[in-house]
Amino acid sequence: xxxxxxxxxxxxxxxxxxxxxxxxxxxxxxxxxxxxxxxxxxxxxxxxxxxxxxxxxxxxxxxxxxxxxxxxxxxxxxxxxxxxxxxxxxxxxxxxxxxxxxxxxxxxxxxxxxxxxxxxxxxxxxxxxxxxxxxxxxxxxxxxxxxxxxxxxxxxxxxxxxxxxxxxxxxxxxxxxxxxxxxxxxxxxxxxxxxxxxxxxxxxxxxxxxxxxxxxxxxxxxxxxxxxxxxxxxxxxxxxxxxxxxxxxxxxxxxxxxxxxxxxxxxxxxxxxxxxxxxxxxxxxxxxxxxxxxxxxxxxxxxxxxxxxxxxxxxxxxxxxxxxxxxxxxxxxxxxxxxxxxxxxxxxxxxxxxxxxxxxxxxxxxxxxxxxxxxxxxxxxxxxxxxxxxxxxxxxxxxxxxxxxxxxxxxxxxxxxxx
Length: 419
Hints:
mainly alpha
């Protein structure tokens, strides 16, 4: 599905989200290191488990509001909250206020995402969703190519300027959503929402809570969430434990030499280059990979992803050589790459049309719970050696493989669940 044929909503979002993510990757990979330096690694490891709880609340709330009030109002709410929190982060005089602002940024993003995903599902036919989601991922990861390398300089030396720029870009994106983006809620969902709007707010939240109760009694969906949590923990280590490992255990190294000159990278610069290389791989290969695996069954794609990301992350602990780390980055990056478009298309196809927002919100649980559990590796690193940490990460990947096998056994037995 060519971009020129896309709905205007999707084009605006592709540009806006792409610009913001270019700035996002200039600060996010270093946030754990920043709080570790300001508050201590043990405190940071514990504190980094809290933002996902708020993201969980934001995802469930965003999903419920998406089905009740529409996609556009919820996207505006999420973008405005993020803008305000970036302003707070920029003017903050304290790392604790920075931490509150960081939580608020995550909360705003969590409210925004279910509506954003639901809008794609509203506008794009099922057979084209993998390609569209992959295109969004390409735009989102263009910034991941240069962002970390630049962020190693700007986040630590020009943090306020960087944060003000993030706030400005989000404000412009908010204005674009307000004036250009139109509502896409399907007619059936609008009818249900219009009937519900007359009810009291307490009844609204009670009804939404009951709706989520029904979702989580869905055995297929529940196993899918549990498998996703376990498979994402290895992938998330790129931004959580990997910087701690590289900064503490990987020495400065010479990347190239020519004559008497040498190009040497410090530990921080090595990490920035690894994350940038991860983003470059995404930009170059996400669309081709999506096409290569377009005919693969979702079961096999999920299992392949867990194998590559789990073992790839484990292999990091076996070396401190920068060139071997670049090679290992290819392995775990492809593990993340093959799963992302399939995961989004899977849930958009599985979710009923009139509960699409709620399912999208509930689907994000695997990210929020994964983000809650993943920072425990930083906390444990005070007592456990790196290979012990990477072994725990690999164990989660193996558990996810078992759960995905079980999931698709049930999926085959109950094909009606896909309708």
